[in-house]
Amino acid sequence: MNAMISLPRGLRGIVLCALFAGVSTAVCAKSSNAVDNDWKLAEKIVAGIQAPVIPAREFSVTDFAADANDVRPAIIAAIDAAVSAGGGRVVIPPGEWVSHGPVVLQSRIELHLREGAVLRFSADPEDYLPVVKSRWEGTELFTYSPLIYASHVEDVAITGTGIIDGNADSRFKSWHPQQNADMQRLRRMGADSVPVEQRIFGEGTFLRPPLVQFFHARRVLLQDFTALNSPFWVNHIVYTDHATVRGIRVDSHFPNNDGIDIESSSNVLVENSWFRTGDDSVVVKSGRDLDGRNIGVPSQRIVVRNNDMGGEDGIALGSEMSGGIRDVFFTDNILRKGISAFRFKSNLDRGGLVENVRLRNLTVESFDSLFWFQLNYPGELGGFFPSTYQDIVFENIQVQEVGTFLEVHAPDAAPLKDVVFRDIHVEKVATPLVIENAVNLKFEEVKLGSQRIDGVLSWRK
């Protein structure tokens, strides 16, 4: 028997229990229509997220000899003055301001960009040295500073309707084709448990930094600003507890420009935001391979609602998810156009468990794939730590057009399991199903064009 089943174009009006008779294990039984009580957990998560507490006093950079050609010294002085006073709001007024180097936030500081303010970062990578401790694609290291960076902080915010611009002419952009050797060296260091202090990727290396990164933070707010031209991931929240992302706009199309990466973080709300990105719009992660498993900090208690998403992929979990992901809720989002609307991914070095993921009330326009589970990417380091994705529910999703409705590739040792597709309507689809190692996939009221799918599918080697 083949390891993968691929259905022809069109379902010919038959349900799964008949379609797979004789070649797979199929059960003609509908799932319970009981209300999923997990959505009460989502409400509880949102109600319990703590906002930053920052004193209501302002420090304008113009009071610190601000120079539009290099505003960074004035920002640093304003932050230092606010810290000395016990915290406050550092204000960037209208106008175009260039920062020759990173803006480093401290506890009880709000960076506020007024309407009409543009904070543009310099194009020279040398401005972002010395190295700082960070996490790059799920592995810890010391490397070029994120353009806005906050490490081991509490009560921090970036607000206002101004613009944070990573610079369309940034030399970091040209590093993407040059990064592979450093990327592989870092991954091997993580797999070999090289001490983090020895993982130095500074001058002469080519790992791009994110635009914004919170690294070990508590009570964070990102609100209303627009992000452009990020060198790498756009907004990276890592090892953070209690974070709210509200009303931001991301329009950034460099390689790897995820709109927001939620990594090894808890109690996170992303709402009412707009994403047009060169990679995933919203992605949840938790570390890579042995390094991620040793640190062992999951991403959990996350709610993503009322967002407009347009990127290469819309919603993603992984591929760096070795610390685990659980209790994640997506509701009332719009997904526009791209490669995959919902993409779940890992390789055979990862390990990790992803469970209790709920997605509902979603509108999808046009994607090459609607649901894509790629869980068997070959391991690069010779390990065999298959990841487990289970207990996922998709419901009430309206779709205009997709190439493939559902594609699953999982290792035989860790099949995709216990996934529910309920009340999903697709107006036009070319290929219904491509399945490789899945157990207990339940379809309830799934309509592909004029055809309907109901039943339970399992397919193993």
Overview of this protein structure:
It is a single chain. The chain is mainly beta. It contains 5 helices and 31 strands. It has helices spanning 16-19, 38-48, 72-84, 180-191, 289-295; strands spanning 5-6, 25-27, 58-60, 88-92, 95-99, 103-104, 109-113, 117-121, 132-136, 139-143, 148-159, 163-165, 200-201, 212-223, 226-228, 235-246, 249-252, 260-263, 266-271, 274-277, 280-285, 299-305, 308-310, 313-317, 325-331, 334-347, 353-377, 388-409, 416-436, 438-448, 451-459. Strands 16-18-21-24-26-27-25-22-19 form a 9-stranded parallel barrel. A hairpin with a 2-residue loop joins strand 30 and strand 31 (451-459). The chain is globular and about 70 Å long.
Topology, element by element:
Layout: E1 5-6, H1 16-19, E2 25-27, H2 38-48, E3 58-60, H3 72-84, E4 88-92, E5 95-99, E6 103-104, E7 109-113, E8 117-121, E9 132-136, E10 139-143, E11 148-159, E12 163-165, H4 180-191, E13 200-201, E14 212-223, E15 226-228, E16 235-246, E17 249-252, E18 260-263, E19 266-271, E20 274-277, E21 280-285, H5 289-295, E22 299-305, E23 308-310, E24 313-317, E25 325-331, E26 334-347, E27 353-377, E28 388-409, E29 416-436, E30 438-448, E31 451-459
Parallel strand pairs: 3-4, 4-7, 5-8, 6-11, 7-11, 8-12, 10-13, 11-14, 12-15, 14-16, 15-17, 16-18, 16-19, 17-20, 18-21, 19-22, 20-23, 21-24, 22-25, 23-26, 24-26, 25-27, 26-27, 27-28, 28-29, 29-30
Antiparallel strand pairs: 1-29, 2-31, 9-10, 30-31
